[in-house]
Design brief:
This protein is an all-alpha fold. The chain has helices spanning 3-22, 26-43. It is built from two helices and no strands.
Length: 54
């Protein structure tokens, strides 16, 4: 992974955290972030079912 790819990933994470912090409905925003991240992982062939914390 290049330095530019790492910077892009960290910028995306920072933006996601800022969205959660600023959200009126934090729970809804967190659920949205989980849903979109799971979709990205599954598109890459990564199984997410065992990653849930219950």
């Amino acid at each position: 992974m290049t330095e530019k790819e790492q910077a892009t990933i960290l910028m995306d994470k920072f933006i996601d955290l800022q969205r959660i912090k600023a959200a009126e409905n934090k729970e809804k925003e967190i659920e949205y972030q989980i849903k979109t991240t799971k979709a990205k992982l599954e598109a890459l062939g990564i199984v997410t079912t065992d990653l849930n914390i219950d």
